[in-house]
Amino acid sequence: PINVTVDGADYTIVKYAEYLTPPSNFTATTIKISDLDIPAFYSDTTKLTLVGLKDADGNIALFIYNADDGSYKKFSPITLSSISFMPIDIDMIIKGYTKYTENINDLNVNVLKYNESSRYSLIYGENLESGEKGFYMYDKENKSLILYNTEYIDYLTKQNKMFTYIIIGFAFILLVLFFIIIKLNKKHHKKKKVVD
Questions:
Q1: Tens digit of pLDDT for each residue in 11-52?
Q2: Which residues have a Cβ under 8 Å from the Cβ of 74 and sit 6 or more positions away?
Q3: Residue among 89, 81, 73, 196 at smallest CA distance from 133
Q4: Cα–Cα dist 81/54, whole Å
Q5: Residue 37, strand partner residues
Q6: Which of 6, 106, 121, 137 is the most buried (most CB within 10 A)?
Q7: For 64-112, what is each residue's pLDDT tens digit?
């Protein structure tokens, strides 16, 4: 057996294809690991290679195999609204959002939310059908997933900037008028004193 350790747990690599079920959009193939032909699944779209690993209890699951460094990562896609989606850990924060953990299809996923009770979450990952990586918006009430579009938010941000500049402009004009009125008022008082 070929033994590997993933996230502190011990596994053996599955060497017989009949014990594995191919996920959609993946093609059966074989790869070399420790000079042995190992059954695997490959996706032309995502360029991911999957192999089967068996844990100490005999449970078999698919893992993403990285041939460059020989590492393994659990393959845990989420299928929502007919989208097969592979979450990727978030290493960035979008302004106005906070990082939380959301349970989606019995999988704990790192998400970004406006606040903890928000219905909507942003998940970073890859669409396994299209290979498109990015932020997707998840609606926990109807369990749907769509590509996150920043177009409207960008528009609102520009509008807010424009209104801010207009307010600053008006405030500046009012300040100038205020100083002019004070100056005129002082001149008027001086003339009045001279006349008296």
A1: 999 999 999 998 988 999 999 998 999 999 999 988 999 999
A2: 6, 7, 61, 63, 64
A3: 89
A4: 30
A5: 32
A6: 121
A7: 999 999 999 999 888 776 678 888 888 777 778 889 988 888 889 889 9
Query: Which is nearest to 78 in space by CA: 103, 45, 50?
Result: 103
Q: Which residues pair with 74 in a beta bridge?
A: 63
Nearest alpha carbon to residue 133 among 142, 124, 141 = 124
Distance CA 72, CA 86 (A): 15
Give Cα 109 to chain centroid, integer Å: 10
Q: What is the per-residue pLDDT across 141-162, written as a single tens digit (0 to 9) for each? A: 888 888 787 665 566 667 777 8
Cα three-residue angle 23-63-53, rounded to 5 degrees = 105
Q: How far apart are CA 91 and CA 185, in angstroms?
A: 60
